Amino acid sequence: MAKVIEGLYYSESHEYVKVEGNIGYIGITDYAQHALGNVVYVDLPDVDDEVTAGEEFGAVESVKAASDIISPVSGTIIEVNEALDGEPELLNKDAFGNWIIKVELSDKSELDGLMDAKAYEAFCENE
Amino acid sequence: MNNRLYGNLIFELSQEGRSGYSLPKNQFGSYEVPASMRRKEDAALPECDEMTVVRHYTNLSANNFGVDNGFYPLGSCTMKYNPKINEEVAALPQFAGLHPLQPAETVQGAEEVCRQLCQSLCELTGLYAFTLKPFAGAHGELTGLMVIRKYHESRGDEARRLVIVPDSAHGTNPASAAVCGLDIVEVKSLSDGTVDVEALKELLAQHGSEIAAMMMTNPNTLGLFEKQIPEIEKLVHAAGGLMYYDGANLNPMLGAARPGDMGFDVMHINLHKTFSTPHGGGGPGAGPVGVRKGLEPFFPEVSPYHGNFTVAMRALAYIRSLGRENIKLVGPLATLNANYIKESLKDVYELPIDGLCKHEFVFDGLKDKSTGVTTMDVAKRLLDYGYHAPTIYFPLLFHESLMIEPTENESKETIDGFICVMRKIAGEAKTNPDEVKSAPHLTPIGRVDDVLAAKHPVVTYKQMVNDNN
User: Fold this and answer.
1) Cβ–Cβ of A38/B396 closer than 8 Å?
2) Closest chain A residue by Cα to residue B399
3) Tell me, what CATH number does B378's domain have?
4) Which of B68, B129, B329, B431 could be B296's S-S partner, Cβ–Cβ 3.0 to 4.6 Å?
């Protein structure tokens, strides 16, 4: 059973945001890494790129498929998890521990449109 | 050679100075190639005698598995038998020896082959004109989308740059649209796997004036016929868009229904699927594009001559040897075979969408998920029993997709044999899951490391040598 963590915000396309003040850490969920299987490549964006809620900012490639990563929120990228470049398998080891991008949020009200842990857990059961 | 892999590379057989020829003594003097045009170092070519080369490639070919070896139920690929009469016809020296720049009056026979094939394809699809130029399916998609783009531009309708693609589509659809300079918008499927017409209506309300076309595969990638096609066609046309038919799944339609009658304006056909020409080993394929009347002036020049002409010859040989009566049986028999397998296995494999399928269907892995045996494991275990694996992990609508397409060719005995083995594997998953998870055991190479292969592909001899040093 895929792990879901309390206190994060979740999207229907299986990304999460962990919010600290005005900063959001965005990654893919444990459910997503499980469904993808062994991740072999992460296509990372650049620092200072703008992300828009609902639009893709990168991609995750596994032995099964390549999948866009959709940003759950809008903002500016202030840091990219470069470790994923050499070790994409970190996403399989700990999807929540290895965020993909760190974003300065431009509109915190967007978080209201995302799911909490409980709602996301129920959502996954129907997937 | 049973179960032993011949694995040499031609470079490893090379012996310095060895060759397969002996030239007579030069009686004509020598001509020095100017220094500026000479290689700076020798080409790294292998040096072998003729017999070594022949044995090398013969042994390599014995490692291959093709339709001529056994059952090949690779979903969405229509791996049907390639009749040997096709090869005989294509090898006729009067055709095989032609040069594309020969004077037109000397190639009237070849022109006639192209004309007859186009005419047959028109008749089978209900469209008005075909071009045989595209070299493969995705090339056909690009060609068809170029027709659509030119059509809109010719009417001054430059804003039509969006292509609607269902979320279950082949990856080539959005890729072809992107290569053609068009943008993609996805339309969702309903839980039964067919296009969500309500979602399509919303999309058209929002983007109607920007829609260039909707691309559809019918039956779709789940092997399900899109029953709403008359309504979908009306909606897209009312919004000013054209309908594109991806011919990947045309096989079950042969003799049953025609894309032209369903309201499609443009389509491509994979001759290497539906019309029995070789593929899987590089083909070459061919992706003729057909259009409704009025669109034929927009055919672009996508290849310099006549496409893969001898592939067209094989397709025509197939159509003519089946004849009008028998070609009508292709679709119904492909459909019957797929449904027979589906019904015979659905008590042990998870069938996410029940009901009649067309030429193929998708299981979502084994029914009993508690064993931990995945679709990948089942596919690998099938190799031990001498079957080519089905398509796996596509479409992406399910986590454990296992997509089976038997084609119309197979006998009941062959199909029963496959069903029996699939049931046996389902049993092994319970009684001896480790055996299945570590399969294949009887093939020349065991379980390959997919992750390593994706992360560190070794595709040249030089790279292999460097890695070993």
Assistant:
1) no
2) A35
3) 3.90.1150.10
4) B129
Spell out the domain ranges in chain A: 9-125
Residue B214 has which token pair?
Answer: 């909707």
Q: Which of A62, A63, A85 to mutate to test binding with chain B, by most B CBs within 10 Å of its CB?
A: A63
Hey, what are A91's tokens?
Answer: 């996403």
* Number of structural domains found in chain B: 2
Looking at chain A, the whole-number percentage of residues with pLDDT higher than 70 is: 99
ipTM of the complex: 0.78
What are the C-alpha distances in Å from B114 to residues A123, B45, B251, B300? Answer: 54, 40, 21, 17
Q: How far is B287 from chain A (nearest CA, A)?
A: 25
CATH code for the part of the protein at A9-125? 2.40.50.100
What's the pLDDT at A1?
64
Beta carbons of A41 and B450 less than 8 Å apart: no
Q: Same domain for B397 and B290?
A: no
Whole-number pLDDT of residue B286: 96
CB burial readout B360-372, b (16+ within 10 A) else e: bbbbbbbeeeebe
Q: Is B370 on the interface with A (CB under 8 A)?
A: no
Give the CATH number, domain containing residue B161.
3.40.640.10
Residues of A with CB under 8 A from a CB of B: 35, 38, 40-41, 61, 63-65, 88-89
Residues B142, B110 share a domain: yes
Tell if the CB–CB gap between B451 and A89 is shorter than 8 Å. yes
Residue B396: list chain A partners with CB under 8 A. Answer: 65
Q: How far is A22 from chain B (nearest CA, A)?
A: 32
Bridge partners of residue B268, in order along the sequence: B246, B289
In a domain, B91, yes or no: yes
Do B417 and B366 share a structural domain?
yes
Per-residue pLDDT tens for B404-457?
A: 999 999 999 999 999 999 999 999 999 999 999 999 999 888 999 988 888 888
Of the residues B299, B323, B347, the one at which a domain ends: B323
Chain B: residue whose CA lies nearest to A89: B451
Domain span at residue B350 reads 326-454
Bridge pairing between strands B289-291 and B266-268: antiparallel
